[in-house]
Amino acid sequence: MTQTVRRTLGRPGAVSLKPYRKLLAPIGEREAALRELGDAELTEAALNLAGAEFPYERAELIELCAVVREAARRTLDERPFDVQLLGMMALLDGRVVEMATGEGKTLVGAMAAAGFALRDRRVHLLSVNDYLARRDAEWMRPLYDMLGVAPSWIAEDSTTIQRREAYAADVTYVSVSELGFDVLRDRLATDPGDLVVPDPDIALIDEADSVLVDEARVPLVLAGAAEAVEADADMAQLVRRLRPQVDYEVDSEGRNVQLTTTGIERVEAELGGVDLYSEEYADSLAQLNLALHAHALLKRDVHYVISDGEVKLIDESRGRVAMLQRWPDGLQAAVEAKEQLQASETGEILDSITVQALVLRYPTLCGMTGTAMAVAEPLREFYELEVAVIPPNLPCVRNDHATRLYATPEEKEDALVEQVLDIHEQGRPILIGTQDVAESERIAARLDKENLDCAVLNAKNDADEAAVIAEAGTYGAITVSTQMAGRGTDIRLGGSDMADRERVVAAGGLYVLGYGRYPSSRLDDQLRGRAGRQGDPGSSRFLVSIEDHLIASTMPEARQFDAASDGEITDPAWASAVDRAQRIAEGQLMELHRNTWRYSKLIDVQREVVLEHRAKVLHQDLGDEQVRSDCPERHADLVDEVGEDEVARAARLITLYHLDRGWTDHLAFLNQLREGIHLRMLGRRDPLDEFNADAVPVFKGFLDQARERAAQTFAEVSVTDGTIDVAAAGVKRPSSTWTYMVHDRPFGSDIDNIVGKARRLSRSSG
Ligand SMILES: Nc1ncnc2c1ncn2[C@@H]1O[C@H](COP(=O)(O)OP(=O)(O)OP(=O)(O)O)[C@@H](O)[C@H]1O
Q1: I need a labelling partner for 473 at 20 to 30 A (CA). Which of 255, 289, 322, 624 fits?
Q2: Is 395 helix (H, G, I), strand (E, B) or coil?
Q3: Ligand 1 contacts CB of residue 234 (under 6 A)
Q4: By the 8 A CB rule, do 305 and 247 touch?
């Protein structure tokens, strides 16, 4: 198919770009006239478009695009390409825009955000981390200034006042986690003046596939002080002595571990002849399970690194340290015990929200990423979002070679070295993408042995990230990286100053070597996308061994193959097996997503009921109204003594306290229910039905109970120096709170495990 035909037809499943394309010519016609304007006049032209009507009329949209293009040319010295305008228009229409890596999405996002903001829409530009939030806001600030739009950014160390100010701006760049923590803290506010986050309007999401699909299930947590969870150090010792395959078995997906009969007998003997499955030893069994999970499923330098004496989790899809993330308390403590580290602070979960629920608060969503079509289905299913595929500005000339398959990991490694030697001799810079930290270190050591100098980028040395990436495109450079280099890194040919660009281009550009395929084709594509940016030459190739976890875990049984003398398998049936393995892995993740979503939906519905009620107490004195009607005499006496306002204040604090306390307890109950529900699986009942059957009636009395408790407390309060002493009546906020994200990926959450087990059970019985 020719380029032109493909352009007109677009991609199946994606929205048509035709309506946007029709506007490109008239937008271009405005260019000459706008160039004549002074800077102030251009700002005026932008403000002439301001108003409360949304969406833009056709003529207004043409003017908007033309003005924004001219402003970008003047302020950033970058004249937006036609394709960037297409991206901007699709975002304004609430689409997820797919634009290849390096096509300038930062600018596209800013142009669309300005377009929304001019029409009085409040935009939260959600980035994946604080660094990018700040960088992008500052980078794009001159453009916003010229358009009369105020941008701002928020970082982890922003104060409450700074946050409130930042959210008051037209466009706020904020990481998903900081936004989520602000929303959670607001949910505990006891004074309307303490609220930080305004009502949600538009979320424009960067790296949309990663946030909306990969991270959607991650809960953000607000915790409050409580006593520490102690992990059993002896248990950590005990599981260390257990033998894999003999005492315990790990399932093929690496998500579950179970003791064998031999293992159970051995543990029971070591614990002094106990019966692990008796009621009396339920705690020991729970501790044992956690220790075994920590021991058998969580690997140092794969799932976490140890730095500064702390366990730091590695983000599975990004390969970098996942700031603020921890496992659920018991497991976190078990890993700390395994590594003989001090147990970190633990607390009671005051409230939590998943990334998906956080994002779904916004009436309008849109986003951008290099890889959206591969997740078009979940985007539609969970968010009702459609994808717009924007073609590249210059055709991509990268040469993506077919995956090479080897029989053993050793042969795969030898093949890698051989290819590196070969490509390096041509002077081409090479980026090697590995699966985890340990592998990146092993490959670097091997290359070193072959006298090949290389730079390493992984979660252990992420401080050097900018410097390593800056030089990764230098003539003859070799860089070994985890998935860290896979997203958002701009590798410039010829080094940071691009001085040697011509020589690198002549040699063929950057060569990306993927050492093993990732569990999702999007991760492969993101890695490949480091080469061949903006029409640059480049190549990519993946090397795979049939013993790689991805392949081995999905292969039903050992299959025959013929391998060449270097171990390469060229049988086409095997090549398709690699693709199939990836599709199976992707399908499993999708299933996990769906299941967790079904559970969290019920919790979200209940949370909404509480929040709605809470808002009435906070803003409309509902608490006062209720205690007045529940304890009329006490209320009247107190009003006489301290006045209406003071009574209303106390009623508000007391009612909010009981609502929040009740919610924290209810959350703990729901968690317990989820964890315990597998016992019912023995009866072959649907765990979700079981969960709902218990969770729904318990919640029925929630608001009445909170009201009753508030009335009781109100009846008992005393007055000190003209104020109602609510603290003396037990109304206390947590002495300290902190935030984190729960990382439940390596083997799925408890729910996922249970669902997984249920599926296996039904398969074996069916
Ligand atoms: N219209 C333009 N003219 C010239 N340069 C541009 C233009 N738009 C963007 N760029 C440049 O292209 C480079 C890549 O931009 P950016 O980092 O926003 O890409 P990206 O699409 O976000 O890539 P990735 O998906 O890898 O994160 C930047 O150096 C930016 O300055």
Answers
A1: 322
A2: coil
A3: no
A4: no
Counting from 1 in the atom list of ligand 1, the atom nearest the Cα of 99 is 21
Residues in the chain: 766
- Domains identified in the chain and CATH numbers: 3-224+356-389 (3.40.50.300), 233-345 (3.90.1440.10), 399-570 (3.40.50.300), 602-733 (1.10.3060.10)
Do residues 687 and 680 lie in contact, with contact meaning Cβ atoms separated by under 8 Å? yes
Taking only the tens place, the pLDDT of each residue in 327-368 is: 766 777 888 888 888 877 666 778 888 899 999 999 999 999
- Residue 576 has which token pair? 């398709």
* CB-CB contact of 443 with 434 (8 Å): yes
- Written as six digits, the tokens of 658 are 């009981």
Q: Is the ipTM of this complex over 0.95?
A: yes
Alpha-carbon gap, residue 750 to 492, rounded angstroms: 44
**Residue 89 burial (10 A CB sphere; 0-12, 13-18, 19+):** buried
CA 79 distance to own-chain centroid = 32
Angle between helical axes of 39-47 and 58-76 (0-180°, round to 10): 150
User: Given this model, what pLDDT does residue 3 score?
Assistant: 44
Q: Let me know: does 291 contact 337? Beta carbons within 8 Å.
A: yes
Q: What is the rounded distance in angstroms from the CA atom of residue 542 to the CA atom of residue 594? A: 30
Buried b (16+ CB within 10 A) or exposed e, 393-423: beebebebeebbbbbebebbbebbeebbeeb
| Cβ 79 under 6 angstroms from ligand 1 | yes
Residue 108 CA, ligand 1 centroid: distance in Å: 9
Q: Computed from CA positions of residues 64, 67, 68, 69, in that sequence, does the dihedral angle turn out positive or negative?
A: positive
Q: Is the CB of 101 under 6 A from ligand 1?
A: yes
Give, as one character, the DSSP assignment of residue 486: G
Q: Hey, which of 143, 490, 523, 527 would you mutate to test ligand 1's pocket, going by the most ligand atoms within 8 Å of its Cβ?
A: 490
Would you say the CB of residue 109 lies under 6 angstroms from ligand 1?
no
What's the CA-to-centroid distance between 492 and ligand 1, angstroms?
A: 11
Which ligand 1 atom is nearest residue 530's CA? 26
Distance of alpha carbon 536 from alpha carbon 103, whole angstroms: 12
DSSP designation for 560 = -
Return the HEC string of 278-332: CHHHHHHHHHHHHHHHHHHCCCECCCEEEECCEEEEECCCCCCECCCEECCHHHH
Tell me: the pLDDT tens digits for 471-511? Answer: 899 999 999 998 776 666 778 999 888 889 999 999 999 99
| Nearest CA owner, ligand 1 atom 25 | 101
pTM of the model: 0.81
Long-range contacts of 165-169 (CB under 8 A, 24+ apart): 167/196, 167/197, 167/198, 168/198
Cis-peptide, bond into residue 378, ω within 30° of zero: no
Question: Would you state the structure tokens that stand for residue 66, as one six-digit string?
Answer: 């033309």
Please tell me the distance from the alpha carbon of residue 254 to that of residue 746, in angstroms, as a whole number. Answer: 8
Question: Measuring CA to CA, how many Å separate 36 from each of 63, 72, 80, 734?
Answer: 15, 15, 18, 61
Ligand 1 pocket mutation pick from 105, 483, 501, 527 by most atoms within 8 angstroms of CB: 105
Q: Whose CA is nearest to atom 9 of ligand 1?
A: 104
Residues 6+ apart with CB under 8 A from 629: none
DSSP class of residue 192 equals G
Strands in 364-369's sheet, in edge-to-edge order, are 151-153, 171-175, 123-127, 202-206, 364-369, 96-98, 387-389
| AA identity, residue 89 | M
Residue 385 CA to ligand 1 centre (angstroms)? 24
Beta bridge partners of 568: 406
How many angstroms is it from 661 CA to the middle of ligand 1?
48
Band (1; pLDDT cuts 50, 70, 90): very low
